[in-house]
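Reminder to self: tokens first, then the designed residues, so the page reads top to bottom the way the pipeline ran.
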């Protein structure tokens, strides 16, 4: 379970991460969509028990900025050979967003076999991923975009889907209202649901 976070303020990062950890989630993707993203990553970099990644990374310069801030992996909405190259250069795993066989061919050429599928629900959901997995049996897919507690198990039923990502347990309103207990509850439910799906 990779929660995708859009921070309003950097000081939301630590209480949010603690709420997720209390719910059994020890990974977080902090997006660069707001000015608070980069300082939010910096704030979490010292939290050893949390694997901290950066999201919405679209340029090689973003890669440098988030790695300098302490990000341990980078996620992109699309596939960019330049971002993949810079991530490899900086020694961090990159999870590129893919929406087509062409994207997957770019990833395969860069020896990247763990990809995001974005926006997963609009692309066709699990059926889209199952179709693309056929010619790319080495690929592992993390659906993102429109995935919910109600649909996540449909994706996890696919053997090529080891992870899913989404924002429902870290919705902006929960952060704004500092509803950390609700974050923990939603994280707990998501983890329990995934465990059931994975047997
Ligand atoms: C995103 O880019 O925001 C992620 O893919 C999460 O999408 P979601 O908000 O639909 O869960």
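Designed residues (199 positions):
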């Amino acid at each position: 379970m990779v929660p995708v976070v859009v921070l309003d303020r950097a000081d939301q990062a630590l209480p949010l991460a603690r709420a997720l950890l209390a719910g059994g989630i020890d990974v977080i993707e902090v997006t660069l969509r707001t000015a608070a993203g980069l300082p939010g990553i910096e704030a979490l970099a010292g939290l050893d028990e949390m694997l901290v990644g950066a999201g919405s990374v679209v340029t090689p310069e973003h890669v440098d900025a988030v790695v300098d801030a302490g990000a341990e992996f980078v996620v992109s909405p699309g596939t960019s050979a330049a971002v993949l190259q810079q991530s490899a250069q900086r020694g961090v795993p990159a999870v590129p967003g893919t929406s087509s066989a062409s994207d997957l061919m770019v990833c395969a050429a860069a020896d990247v076999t763990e990809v995001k599928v974005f926006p997963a629900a609009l692309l066709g959901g699990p059926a889209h991923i199952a179709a693309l997995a056929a010619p790319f049996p080495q690929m592992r897919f993390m659906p993102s975009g429109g995935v919910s507690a109600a649909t996540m198990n449909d994706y996890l039923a696919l053997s090529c889907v080891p992870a899913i990502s989404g924002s429902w347990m870290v919705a902006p309103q929960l952060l704004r209202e500092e509803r950390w207990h609700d974050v923990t509850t939603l994280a707990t439910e998501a983890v329990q649901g995934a465990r059931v799906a994975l047997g």
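The pocket of 3-phosphoglyceric acid is lined by residues 4, 118, 144-147, 166-167 (CB under 6 Å).
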